[in-house]
Amino acid sequence: MLLQRVAPAAALALGLYTFALSSPAQNATPPHHFIRVTLDGASDQPVSGRLLVFAAQAQAARAEAKDGKVEEVDTNPFDPTAVAVAGREVSGLTPGASVMVDLDDVAFPSGFSTLPAGDYVFQAVLDPDHSYNYLGRDGGDLVSAVAEGPLAAGKALPNLSLVKRLPVHDDPWRLSSRAPQAVRDALPQAKAQTHDASMVSPALSAFWGRPIQVRARVLVPPGYDAKAATRYPTVYFTHGFTGNYDRLAGNIATVWQAMASGQMPKMIWVFLDESTPTGTHEFADSVNNGPWGTALTEEVIPALEREYRMDAKPSGRFLNGHSSGGWATLWLQTRYPKIFGGTWSTSPDPSDFHDFTGVDLYAPDANLYTRADGSPVPLIRDHGKVIANMETFARLERVLGPYGGQMGSFDWVFSPRGQDGAPLPMFDRDTGKVDPKVVAYWHAHYDIAARVAAHWPQLKPDLDGKIHLIVGTADTFYLDGAAHRFKAVLDKLGAKSDFRFLPDRTHFDLYKQGDDDSALLKKIAWEMYAVARPGQARTKAPGQ
Protein backbone atom coordinates (compact mmCIF):
# COMPACT_ATOMS: atom_id res chain seq x y z
CA MET A 1 0.00 0.00 0.00
CA LEU A 2 1.25 3.47 -0.84
CA LEU A 3 1.82 5.78 2.09
CA GLN A 4 -0.22 8.96 2.07
CA ARG A 5 1.65 12.26 2.20
CA VAL A 6 -0.47 15.24 3.20
CA ALA A 7 0.50 18.86 2.60
CA PRO A 8 1.07 20.79 5.87
CA ALA A 9 -1.87 23.11 5.34
CA ALA A 10 -4.15 20.21 4.62
CA ALA A 11 -2.94 18.29 7.66
CA LEU A 12 -4.25 21.04 9.91
CA ALA A 13 -7.66 21.06 8.33
CA LEU A 14 -10.54 18.67 8.76
CA GLY A 15 -11.13 16.51 5.72
CA LEU A 16 -14.88 16.56 6.26
CA TYR A 17 -17.11 19.59 5.98
CA THR A 18 -20.86 19.51 6.36
CA PHE A 19 -23.57 22.05 5.84
CA ALA A 20 -27.35 22.01 5.87
CA LEU A 21 -29.18 22.92 2.68
CA SER A 22 -31.94 24.33 4.88
CA SER A 23 -32.93 24.14 8.51
CA PRO A 24 -33.87 20.66 9.79
CA ALA A 25 -37.37 21.89 10.47
CA GLN A 26 -37.83 22.77 6.81
CA ASN A 27 -36.00 19.90 5.11
CA ALA A 28 -34.76 16.54 6.29
CA THR A 29 -32.09 16.33 3.59
CA PRO A 30 -28.92 15.04 5.25
CA PRO A 31 -25.89 17.35 5.27
CA HIS A 32 -23.42 17.00 2.44
CA HIS A 33 -20.06 15.31 2.86
CA PHE A 34 -16.97 17.06 1.55
CA ILE A 35 -13.46 15.67 1.18
CA ARG A 36 -10.21 17.56 0.62
CA VAL A 37 -7.91 16.53 -2.23
CA THR A 38 -4.41 18.05 -2.50
CA LEU A 39 -1.96 17.98 -5.41
CA ASP A 40 1.10 16.75 -3.55
CA GLY A 41 3.89 15.24 -5.61
CA ALA A 42 2.06 13.79 -8.60
CA SER A 43 2.91 16.83 -10.74
CA ASP A 44 5.14 19.87 -10.48
CA GLN A 45 2.91 21.74 -12.93
CA PRO A 46 -0.71 22.96 -12.67
CA VAL A 47 -3.17 20.24 -13.67
CA SER A 48 -6.75 20.16 -14.94
CA GLY A 49 -9.26 17.43 -15.61
CA ARG A 50 -11.92 15.26 -14.02
CA LEU A 51 -11.33 14.69 -10.31
CA LEU A 52 -12.92 11.50 -9.02
CA VAL A 53 -13.23 10.18 -5.48
CA PHE A 54 -13.94 6.46 -5.06
CA ALA A 55 -15.21 4.84 -1.87
CA ALA A 56 -15.97 1.26 -0.86
CA GLN A 57 -16.91 -0.34 2.43
CA ALA A 58 -13.62 -1.23 4.06
CA GLN A 59 -14.49 -4.70 5.26
CA ALA A 60 -15.74 -5.85 1.87
CA ALA A 61 -12.79 -4.26 0.06
CA ARG A 62 -10.27 -5.99 2.35
CA ALA A 63 -12.04 -9.30 1.87
CA GLU A 64 -11.60 -9.06 -1.91
CA ALA A 65 -8.04 -7.69 -1.85
CA LYS A 66 -4.94 -9.83 -2.01
CA ASP A 67 -3.63 -10.39 1.53
CA GLY A 68 -6.27 -7.96 2.74
CA LYS A 69 -4.29 -4.96 1.44
CA VAL A 70 -6.48 -2.55 -0.54
CA GLU A 71 -4.23 -0.82 -3.04
CA GLU A 72 -6.89 0.45 -5.44
CA VAL A 73 -10.53 1.50 -5.23
CA ASP A 74 -12.23 1.51 -8.61
CA THR A 75 -15.54 0.81 -10.30
CA ASN A 76 -16.50 -2.53 -11.81
CA PRO A 77 -19.20 -2.54 -14.53
CA PHE A 78 -20.23 -6.05 -13.50
CA ASP A 79 -20.75 -4.99 -9.87
CA PRO A 80 -21.43 -1.28 -10.39
CA THR A 81 -22.90 -0.34 -7.02
CA ALA A 82 -20.11 -1.92 -4.95
CA VAL A 83 -18.04 1.27 -5.23
CA ALA A 84 -19.36 4.80 -4.81
CA VAL A 85 -17.83 7.62 -6.82
CA ALA A 86 -18.13 11.40 -6.85
CA GLY A 87 -16.73 13.73 -9.47
CA ARG A 88 -16.07 17.34 -10.36
CA GLU A 89 -14.02 19.32 -12.84
CA VAL A 90 -10.84 21.08 -11.72
CA SER A 91 -8.86 23.65 -13.64
CA GLY A 92 -5.32 24.82 -13.02
CA LEU A 93 -4.78 23.04 -9.71
CA THR A 94 -1.27 24.03 -8.64
CA PRO A 95 1.21 21.92 -6.67
CA GLY A 96 0.40 22.09 -2.95
CA ALA A 97 -3.09 23.47 -3.58
CA SER A 98 -6.28 21.69 -2.50
CA VAL A 99 -9.85 21.45 -3.69
CA MET A 100 -12.95 20.31 -1.87
CA VAL A 101 -15.08 17.64 -3.53
CA ASP A 102 -18.77 17.65 -2.67
CA LEU A 103 -19.50 13.95 -2.32
CA ASP A 104 -23.23 14.56 -2.61
CA ASP A 105 -23.34 16.81 -5.67
CA VAL A 106 -22.38 14.66 -8.67
CA ALA A 107 -22.23 11.18 -7.19
CA PHE A 108 -23.02 7.53 -7.83
CA PRO A 109 -25.00 5.47 -6.89
CA SER A 110 -26.23 8.36 -4.73
CA GLY A 111 -24.88 11.14 -2.56
CA PHE A 112 -22.42 9.80 -0.04
CA SER A 113 -24.54 11.07 2.86
CA THR A 114 -27.13 8.43 1.98
CA LEU A 115 -24.65 5.52 1.99
CA PRO A 116 -24.67 3.15 4.98
CA ALA A 117 -22.57 4.52 7.82
CA GLY A 118 -19.34 2.70 8.54
CA ASP A 119 -15.67 2.48 7.70
CA TYR A 120 -14.75 3.04 4.06
CA VAL A 121 -11.62 3.06 1.92
CA PHE A 122 -11.18 6.14 -0.27
CA GLN A 123 -9.02 6.98 -3.26
CA ALA A 124 -8.81 10.07 -5.46
CA VAL A 125 -7.93 10.07 -9.16
CA LEU A 126 -7.42 13.04 -11.46
CA ASP A 127 -8.14 12.13 -15.08
CA PRO A 128 -6.42 14.88 -17.10
CA ASP A 129 -7.59 13.80 -20.55
CA HIS A 130 -11.19 12.84 -19.68
CA SER A 131 -10.64 9.26 -20.84
CA TYR A 132 -11.88 7.42 -17.73
CA ASN A 133 -15.21 6.49 -19.28
CA TYR A 134 -13.46 4.85 -22.21
CA LEU A 135 -10.13 3.54 -20.93
CA GLY A 136 -10.65 3.40 -17.18
CA ARG A 137 -7.68 4.17 -14.96
CA ASP A 138 -4.83 4.69 -17.37
CA GLY A 139 -1.33 5.99 -17.79
CA GLY A 140 -1.05 9.71 -17.00
CA ASP A 141 -3.78 9.70 -14.34
CA LEU A 142 -2.82 11.21 -10.98
CA VAL A 143 -3.75 9.08 -7.97
CA SER A 144 -3.74 9.20 -4.21
CA ALA A 145 -2.93 6.41 -1.81
CA VAL A 146 -5.87 4.45 -0.47
CA ALA A 147 -6.98 5.88 2.86
CA GLU A 148 -9.46 4.49 5.35
CA GLY A 149 -11.89 6.47 7.44
CA PRO A 150 -15.43 6.60 8.79
CA LEU A 151 -18.36 7.77 6.70
CA ALA A 152 -20.93 9.15 9.12
CA ALA A 153 -22.43 12.48 10.08
CA GLY A 154 -20.02 14.50 12.18
CA LYS A 155 -17.03 12.27 11.46
CA ALA A 156 -13.91 13.56 9.72
CA LEU A 157 -13.02 12.02 6.40
CA PRO A 158 -9.34 11.48 5.54
CA ASN A 159 -7.56 14.04 3.41
CA LEU A 160 -6.44 12.62 0.07
CA SER A 161 -3.21 13.66 -1.63
CA LEU A 162 -2.41 13.07 -5.29
CA VAL A 163 1.08 11.66 -4.86
CA LYS A 164 1.67 9.58 -7.97
CA ARG A 165 1.24 9.79 -11.74
CA LEU A 166 0.51 6.38 -13.24
CA PRO A 167 3.17 5.39 -15.78
CA VAL A 168 2.30 5.59 -19.44
CA HIS A 169 2.94 2.26 -21.12
CA ASP A 170 4.18 3.19 -24.57
CA ASP A 171 4.59 -0.38 -25.84
CA PRO A 172 1.58 -1.16 -28.06
CA TRP A 173 2.77 -4.76 -28.41
CA ARG A 174 2.02 -5.82 -24.85
CA LEU A 175 -0.23 -8.88 -24.76
CA SER A 176 -2.89 -9.72 -22.23
CA SER A 177 -1.84 -12.14 -19.51
CA ARG A 178 -4.60 -14.42 -20.86
CA ALA A 179 -3.03 -14.70 -24.34
CA PRO A 180 -2.30 -18.35 -25.29
CA GLN A 181 1.35 -19.36 -25.44
CA ALA A 182 1.13 -20.02 -29.18
CA VAL A 183 0.02 -16.41 -29.71
CA ARG A 184 2.82 -15.14 -27.46
CA ASP A 185 5.35 -17.14 -29.45
CA ALA A 186 3.98 -15.69 -32.70
CA LEU A 187 4.17 -12.07 -31.57
CA PRO A 188 7.72 -11.26 -32.80
CA GLN A 189 6.94 -12.46 -36.32
CA ALA A 190 3.54 -10.79 -36.29
CA LYS A 191 5.13 -7.51 -35.27
CA ALA A 192 7.71 -7.81 -38.04
CA GLN A 193 4.96 -8.32 -40.64
CA THR A 194 2.84 -5.39 -39.40
CA HIS A 195 3.14 -1.90 -40.81
CA ASP A 196 1.75 1.42 -39.68
CA ALA A 197 -0.77 2.61 -42.25
CA SER A 198 -1.98 5.76 -40.53
CA MET A 199 -2.62 8.75 -42.74
CA VAL A 200 -3.85 12.31 -42.43
CA SER A 201 -7.36 12.55 -43.84
CA PRO A 202 -8.11 15.64 -45.95
CA ALA A 203 -11.85 15.22 -45.33
CA LEU A 204 -11.55 14.94 -41.56
CA SER A 205 -8.92 17.67 -41.37
CA ALA A 206 -11.20 20.04 -43.26
CA PHE A 207 -14.04 19.21 -40.87
CA TRP A 208 -12.01 19.82 -37.70
CA GLY A 209 -9.76 22.60 -39.00
CA ARG A 210 -6.60 20.73 -37.96
CA PRO A 211 -4.77 17.58 -39.10
CA ILE A 212 -6.75 14.45 -38.22
CA GLN A 213 -5.41 10.96 -38.82
CA VAL A 214 -7.12 7.72 -39.61
CA ARG A 215 -4.96 5.27 -37.68
CA ALA A 216 -4.44 1.74 -38.90
CA ARG A 217 -2.03 -1.18 -38.93
CA VAL A 218 -1.60 -3.56 -41.88
CA LEU A 219 -0.63 -7.20 -41.34
CA VAL A 220 0.66 -8.96 -44.44
CA PRO A 221 0.44 -12.76 -44.64
CA PRO A 222 3.27 -15.32 -44.53
CA GLY A 223 5.19 -15.35 -47.81
CA TYR A 224 4.04 -11.86 -48.81
CA ASP A 225 6.27 -10.28 -51.45
CA ALA A 226 5.55 -6.69 -52.40
CA LYS A 227 7.27 -7.23 -55.77
CA ALA A 228 5.47 -10.46 -56.68
CA ALA A 229 2.35 -10.68 -58.83
CA THR A 230 0.33 -12.49 -56.15
CA ARG A 231 -2.56 -10.52 -54.74
CA TYR A 232 -4.55 -11.18 -51.57
CA PRO A 233 -8.08 -10.71 -50.30
CA THR A 234 -8.22 -8.03 -47.61
CA VAL A 235 -10.07 -7.97 -44.30
CA TYR A 236 -10.89 -4.64 -42.67
CA PHE A 237 -11.21 -5.19 -38.93
CA THR A 238 -12.16 -2.68 -36.26
CA HIS A 239 -12.24 -3.12 -32.51
CA GLY A 240 -15.00 -2.73 -29.96
CA PHE A 241 -15.58 -0.17 -27.22
CA THR A 242 -12.42 0.57 -25.14
CA GLY A 243 -10.17 -0.56 -28.01
CA ASN A 244 -7.72 1.71 -29.82
CA TYR A 245 -4.62 1.78 -32.01
CA ASP A 246 -2.39 0.69 -29.13
CA ARG A 247 -4.61 -2.23 -28.09
CA LEU A 248 -4.46 -4.31 -31.27
CA ALA A 249 -1.48 -6.56 -30.51
CA GLY A 250 -3.59 -9.51 -29.39
CA ASN A 251 -5.74 -9.40 -32.52
CA ILE A 252 -2.73 -9.08 -34.81
CA ALA A 253 -0.75 -11.89 -33.17
CA THR A 254 -3.79 -14.17 -33.15
CA VAL A 255 -4.39 -13.69 -36.88
CA TRP A 256 -0.72 -14.12 -37.75
CA GLN A 257 -0.39 -17.30 -35.70
CA ALA A 258 -3.49 -18.77 -37.36
CA MET A 259 -2.28 -17.92 -40.86
CA ALA A 260 1.23 -19.17 -40.18
CA SER A 261 -0.09 -22.49 -38.85
CA GLY A 262 -2.54 -23.00 -41.72
CA GLN A 263 -5.61 -22.52 -39.54
CA MET A 264 -6.61 -19.43 -41.55
CA PRO A 265 -6.11 -18.58 -45.21
CA LYS A 266 -3.49 -16.08 -46.25
CA MET A 267 -5.06 -12.65 -46.48
CA ILE A 268 -4.04 -9.07 -45.77
CA TRP A 269 -5.61 -7.71 -42.59
CA VAL A 270 -6.14 -3.99 -41.95
CA PHE A 271 -6.70 -3.21 -38.28
CA LEU A 272 -8.58 0.07 -38.03
CA ASP A 273 -8.72 2.32 -34.96
CA GLU A 274 -12.23 3.73 -34.46
CA SER A 275 -11.61 5.40 -31.07
CA THR A 276 -11.96 9.11 -30.44
CA PRO A 277 -11.99 11.24 -27.27
CA THR A 278 -15.81 10.97 -27.40
CA GLY A 279 -15.96 7.15 -27.66
CA THR A 280 -16.05 5.38 -31.02
CA HIS A 281 -16.86 7.08 -34.31
CA GLU A 282 -18.12 3.84 -35.95
CA PHE A 283 -16.79 4.92 -39.34
CA ALA A 284 -20.05 6.78 -39.86
CA ASP A 285 -20.23 10.27 -41.32
CA SER A 286 -21.55 12.40 -38.46
CA VAL A 287 -22.29 16.08 -37.91
CA ASN A 288 -20.47 15.76 -34.59
CA ASN A 289 -17.48 13.50 -35.28
CA GLY A 290 -16.93 14.25 -38.94
CA PRO A 291 -16.86 12.21 -42.17
CA TRP A 292 -15.16 9.01 -40.99
CA GLY A 293 -16.90 6.76 -43.51
CA THR A 294 -15.92 9.03 -46.35
CA ALA A 295 -12.33 9.15 -45.10
CA LEU A 296 -12.07 5.37 -45.02
CA THR A 297 -13.72 4.57 -48.33
CA GLU A 298 -12.48 7.47 -50.45
CA GLU A 299 -9.04 8.13 -48.97
CA VAL A 300 -7.65 5.26 -46.88
CA ILE A 301 -8.68 2.23 -48.92
CA PRO A 302 -7.51 3.66 -52.28
CA ALA A 303 -4.17 4.60 -50.68
CA LEU A 304 -3.70 1.13 -49.22
CA GLU A 305 -4.55 -0.56 -52.50
CA ARG A 306 -1.89 1.50 -54.22
CA GLU A 307 0.74 0.37 -51.70
CA TYR A 308 -0.12 -3.26 -50.98
CA ARG A 309 -0.83 -6.31 -53.16
CA MET A 310 -4.55 -6.32 -52.40
CA ASP A 311 -7.29 -7.72 -54.62
CA ALA A 312 -8.67 -4.18 -54.84
CA LYS A 313 -12.19 -5.23 -55.81
CA PRO A 314 -15.43 -5.84 -53.87
CA SER A 315 -15.11 -9.64 -53.92
CA GLY A 316 -11.78 -9.24 -52.12
CA ARG A 317 -12.71 -6.64 -49.50
CA PHE A 318 -14.29 -7.93 -46.30
CA LEU A 319 -15.31 -6.54 -42.93
CA ASN A 320 -15.15 -7.97 -39.42
CA GLY A 321 -15.73 -6.47 -36.00
CA HIS A 322 -17.29 -7.25 -32.64
CA SER A 323 -19.69 -5.19 -30.50
CA SER A 324 -19.17 -1.52 -31.45
CA GLY A 325 -16.90 -2.85 -34.18
CA GLY A 326 -19.75 -5.12 -35.21
CA TRP A 327 -22.04 -2.14 -35.68
CA ALA A 328 -19.34 -0.20 -37.55
CA THR A 329 -18.73 -3.02 -40.02
CA LEU A 330 -22.45 -3.64 -40.48
CA TRP A 331 -22.87 0.06 -41.18
CA LEU A 332 -20.00 0.14 -43.67
CA GLN A 333 -21.37 -2.85 -45.58
CA THR A 334 -24.90 -1.46 -45.82
CA ARG A 335 -23.78 2.12 -46.47
CA TYR A 336 -21.10 1.23 -49.07
CA PRO A 337 -22.28 -2.08 -50.60
CA LYS A 338 -20.47 -1.47 -53.88
CA ILE A 339 -17.12 -1.32 -52.08
CA PHE A 340 -17.24 -4.34 -49.77
CA GLY A 341 -17.90 -7.98 -50.57
CA GLY A 342 -19.35 -8.96 -47.21
CA THR A 343 -19.39 -8.23 -43.51
CA TRP A 344 -19.10 -10.77 -40.73
CA SER A 345 -20.36 -8.61 -37.85
CA THR A 346 -20.49 -10.23 -34.43
CA SER A 347 -22.65 -9.08 -31.51
CA PRO A 348 -23.18 -5.66 -33.09
CA ASP A 349 -24.65 -2.73 -31.22
CA PRO A 350 -28.35 -2.26 -32.04
CA SER A 351 -29.01 -2.46 -35.76
CA ASP A 352 -32.75 -1.82 -35.31
CA PHE A 353 -33.76 0.91 -32.87
CA HIS A 354 -37.05 -0.84 -32.16
CA ASP A 355 -34.82 -2.83 -29.79
CA PHE A 356 -32.16 -0.57 -28.33
CA THR A 357 -30.84 -3.06 -25.75
CA GLY A 358 -34.44 -3.94 -24.98
CA VAL A 359 -36.12 -0.54 -25.41
CA ASP A 360 -38.28 0.43 -28.40
CA LEU A 361 -37.07 3.99 -29.02
CA TYR A 362 -40.08 4.64 -31.26
CA ALA A 363 -42.72 3.72 -28.69
CA PRO A 364 -44.87 6.52 -27.22
CA ASP A 365 -43.34 7.82 -23.98
CA ALA A 366 -40.28 5.61 -24.46
CA ASN A 367 -37.99 5.56 -21.44
CA LEU A 368 -34.54 4.04 -21.15
CA TYR A 369 -34.77 3.60 -17.39
CA THR A 370 -38.19 2.09 -16.77
CA ARG A 371 -40.57 -0.18 -18.64
CA ALA A 372 -44.27 0.48 -19.00
CA ASP A 373 -44.93 -1.60 -15.89
CA GLY A 374 -42.46 0.47 -13.88
CA SER A 375 -39.74 -2.18 -13.71
CA PRO A 376 -36.15 -1.13 -14.47
CA VAL A 377 -34.70 -1.69 -17.93
CA PRO A 378 -31.85 -4.22 -17.64
CA LEU A 379 -28.61 -3.66 -19.53
CA ILE A 380 -26.05 -6.22 -18.40
CA ARG A 381 -26.77 -9.87 -17.66
CA ASP A 382 -24.88 -13.03 -16.91
CA HIS A 383 -27.11 -15.55 -18.65
CA GLY A 384 -30.32 -15.29 -16.59
CA LYS A 385 -29.00 -13.01 -13.86
CA VAL A 386 -29.32 -9.23 -14.26
CA ILE A 387 -26.07 -7.52 -13.26
CA ALA A 388 -26.90 -3.88 -13.95
CA ASN A 389 -29.74 -1.83 -15.34
CA MET A 390 -29.62 1.00 -17.83
CA GLU A 391 -30.16 3.73 -15.24
CA THR A 392 -27.28 2.49 -13.11
CA PHE A 393 -24.97 2.41 -16.12
CA ALA A 394 -25.97 5.87 -17.40
CA ARG A 395 -25.71 7.53 -13.99
CA LEU A 396 -22.25 6.11 -13.37
CA GLU A 397 -21.15 7.26 -16.81
CA ARG A 398 -22.29 10.81 -16.06
CA VAL A 399 -20.25 10.95 -12.85
CA LEU A 400 -17.10 9.62 -14.49
CA GLY A 401 -17.12 12.48 -16.97
CA PRO A 402 -18.71 14.12 -20.01
CA TYR A 403 -16.69 12.31 -22.67
CA GLY A 404 -15.99 8.77 -23.82
CA GLY A 405 -18.88 6.88 -22.22
CA GLN A 406 -20.93 4.38 -24.21
CA MET A 407 -24.20 6.33 -24.02
CA GLY A 408 -22.47 9.59 -24.80
CA SER A 409 -20.65 7.93 -27.68
CA PHE A 410 -23.98 7.00 -29.28
CA ASP A 411 -25.03 10.65 -29.09
CA TRP A 412 -21.80 11.81 -30.72
CA VAL A 413 -22.35 9.45 -33.66
CA PHE A 414 -26.12 9.46 -34.11
CA SER A 415 -27.51 12.76 -32.79
CA PRO A 416 -28.00 16.16 -34.38
CA ARG A 417 -25.87 18.99 -33.08
CA GLY A 418 -27.36 21.35 -30.51
CA GLN A 419 -27.05 25.12 -30.40
CA ASP A 420 -24.12 24.83 -27.99
CA GLY A 421 -22.19 22.73 -30.50
CA ALA A 422 -22.59 19.50 -28.55
CA PRO A 423 -24.75 16.58 -29.73
CA LEU A 424 -28.31 16.55 -28.46
CA PRO A 425 -28.81 13.73 -25.95
CA MET A 426 -31.15 10.98 -27.07
CA PHE A 427 -32.54 10.64 -23.55
CA ASP A 428 -32.72 12.63 -20.33
CA ARG A 429 -30.01 11.39 -17.95
CA ASP A 430 -32.13 12.29 -14.91
CA THR A 431 -35.39 10.64 -15.93
CA GLY A 432 -34.52 8.28 -18.79
CA LYS A 433 -37.18 9.91 -20.99
CA VAL A 434 -36.42 9.53 -24.70
CA ASP A 435 -36.51 12.67 -26.86
CA PRO A 436 -38.67 11.76 -29.88
CA LYS A 437 -37.21 14.56 -32.02
CA VAL A 438 -33.69 13.26 -31.53
CA VAL A 439 -34.86 9.69 -32.13
CA ALA A 440 -36.47 10.81 -35.39
CA TYR A 441 -33.04 12.02 -36.50
CA TRP A 442 -31.47 8.73 -35.42
CA HIS A 443 -34.11 6.86 -37.45
CA ALA A 444 -33.62 8.93 -40.56
CA HIS A 445 -29.85 8.60 -40.55
CA TYR A 446 -28.53 5.60 -38.58
CA ASP A 447 -31.18 2.92 -37.99
CA ILE A 448 -29.58 0.26 -40.19
CA ALA A 449 -32.70 -1.89 -40.52
CA ALA A 450 -34.87 1.11 -41.40
CA ARG A 451 -32.36 2.42 -43.89
CA VAL A 452 -31.97 -0.94 -45.64
CA ALA A 453 -35.75 -1.36 -45.84
CA ALA A 454 -36.26 2.14 -47.23
CA HIS A 455 -33.58 1.78 -49.91
CA TRP A 456 -33.75 -1.94 -50.66
CA PRO A 457 -34.54 -1.63 -54.39
CA GLN A 458 -31.37 0.42 -54.85
CA LEU A 459 -29.26 -1.62 -52.39
CA LYS A 460 -30.30 -5.14 -53.41
CA PRO A 461 -28.02 -5.63 -56.44
CA ASP A 462 -24.91 -4.87 -54.38
CA LEU A 463 -25.95 -5.92 -50.86
CA ASP A 464 -27.97 -9.11 -51.22
CA GLY A 465 -26.19 -12.03 -49.56
CA LYS A 466 -23.39 -9.93 -48.07
CA ILE A 467 -24.70 -9.58 -44.51
CA HIS A 468 -23.44 -12.15 -42.00
CA LEU A 469 -24.43 -11.44 -38.39
CA ILE A 470 -23.50 -13.71 -35.49
CA VAL A 471 -24.62 -13.20 -31.88
CA GLY A 472 -25.17 -15.28 -28.78
CA THR A 473 -28.66 -15.99 -27.45
CA ALA A 474 -27.37 -14.99 -24.00
CA ASP A 475 -25.60 -11.82 -25.18
CA THR A 476 -24.41 -9.92 -22.11
CA PHE A 477 -25.93 -6.64 -23.37
CA TYR A 478 -29.13 -8.09 -24.88
CA LEU A 479 -27.91 -7.39 -28.41
CA ASP A 480 -29.57 -10.52 -29.79
CA GLY A 481 -32.90 -8.70 -29.64
CA ALA A 482 -32.01 -6.11 -32.28
CA ALA A 483 -30.43 -8.83 -34.43
CA HIS A 484 -33.73 -10.74 -34.48
CA ARG A 485 -35.49 -7.51 -35.50
CA PHE A 486 -33.05 -6.86 -38.33
CA LYS A 487 -33.34 -10.42 -39.58
CA ALA A 488 -37.14 -10.08 -39.67
CA VAL A 489 -36.82 -6.92 -41.78
CA LEU A 490 -34.50 -8.64 -44.26
CA ASP A 491 -36.68 -11.74 -44.39
CA LYS A 492 -39.71 -9.61 -45.19
CA LEU A 493 -37.76 -7.98 -48.02
CA GLY A 494 -36.86 -11.41 -49.37
CA ALA A 495 -33.19 -10.62 -48.89
CA LYS A 496 -30.52 -13.28 -48.71
CA SER A 497 -28.67 -13.02 -45.40
CA ASP A 498 -26.82 -15.15 -42.87
CA PHE A 499 -27.89 -14.74 -39.23
CA ARG A 500 -26.54 -17.11 -36.60
CA PHE A 501 -27.80 -17.12 -33.02
CA LEU A 502 -25.36 -19.25 -31.04
CA PRO A 503 -27.12 -20.99 -28.15
CA ASP A 504 -26.23 -19.74 -24.66
CA ARG A 505 -23.23 -17.74 -25.89
CA THR A 506 -22.55 -14.36 -24.32
CA HIS A 507 -20.84 -11.21 -25.56
CA PHE A 508 -17.50 -12.50 -24.34
CA ASP A 509 -17.36 -16.19 -25.27
CA LEU A 510 -18.89 -15.99 -28.75
CA TYR A 511 -15.61 -16.81 -30.54
CA LYS A 512 -14.61 -19.64 -28.22
CA GLN A 513 -14.93 -23.33 -29.05
CA GLY A 514 -13.36 -25.79 -26.63
CA ASP A 515 -9.94 -24.44 -25.72
CA ASP A 516 -9.72 -22.24 -28.81
CA ASP A 517 -10.66 -18.63 -28.05
CA SER A 518 -10.56 -17.67 -31.74
CA ALA A 519 -12.37 -20.63 -33.32
CA LEU A 520 -15.14 -18.48 -34.78
CA LEU A 521 -12.64 -16.04 -36.28
CA LYS A 522 -10.96 -18.90 -38.12
CA LYS A 523 -14.28 -20.11 -39.46
CA ILE A 524 -15.17 -16.58 -40.59
CA ALA A 525 -11.83 -16.20 -42.36
CA TRP A 526 -12.39 -19.35 -44.42
CA GLU A 527 -15.90 -18.18 -45.31
CA MET A 528 -14.46 -14.90 -46.56
CA TYR A 529 -11.81 -16.70 -48.55
CA ALA A 530 -14.47 -18.86 -50.19
CA VAL A 531 -16.04 -15.68 -51.58
CA ALA A 532 -12.72 -14.30 -52.82
CA ARG A 533 -11.38 -17.57 -54.18
CA PRO A 534 -14.31 -19.83 -55.10
CA GLY A 535 -13.26 -23.46 -55.24
CA GLN A 536 -9.91 -22.85 -53.55
CA ALA A 537 -10.97 -22.41 -49.91
CA ARG A 538 -11.50 -25.04 -47.27
CA THR A 539 -15.03 -25.23 -45.95
CA LYS A 540 -13.72 -25.63 -42.41
CA ALA A 541 -10.61 -24.59 -40.58
CA PRO A 542 -8.33 -27.40 -39.40
CA GLY A 543 -9.68 -29.09 -36.29
CA GLN A 544 -13.29 -27.95 -36.85
Summarize the structure.
The chain has 544 residues and is of the alpha+beta class. It has helices at 8-11, 58-64, 132-135, 181-192, 202-208, 249-260, 292-307, 324-335, 390-400, 406-414, 436-445, 448-454, 456-463, 480-493, 519-532; strands at 34-39, 47-57, 84-93, 98-102, 107-108, 118-127, 142-144, 147-151, 160-165, 194-196, 199-200, 213-214, 216-219, 234-238, 268-272, 275-276, 279-280, 285-286, 290-291, 317-322, 343-346, 378-382, 385-389, 467-472, 498-502. The strands form six sheets. Strands 1, 2, 3, 4, 5, 6, 7, 8 and 9 form a nine-stranded mixed sheet that branches. An eight-stranded mixed sheet has the order 10-13-15-14-20-21-24-25, with helices on both faces.
SSE layout and pairings?
Layout: H1 8-11, E1 34-39, E2 47-57, H2 58-64, E3 84-93, E4 98-102, E5 107-108, E6 118-127, H3 132-135, E7 142-144, E8 147-151, E9 160-165, H4 181-192, E10 194-196, E11 199-200, H5 202-208, E12 213-214, E13 216-219, E14 234-238, H6 249-260, E15 268-272, E16 275-276, E17 279-280, E18 285-286, E19 290-291, H7 292-307, E20 317-322, H8 324-335, E21 343-346, E22 378-382, E23 385-389, H9 390-400, H10 406-414, H11 436-445, H12 448-454, H13 456-463, E24 467-472, H14 480-493, E25 498-502, H15 519-532
Helix pairs in contact: 4-6, 12-14
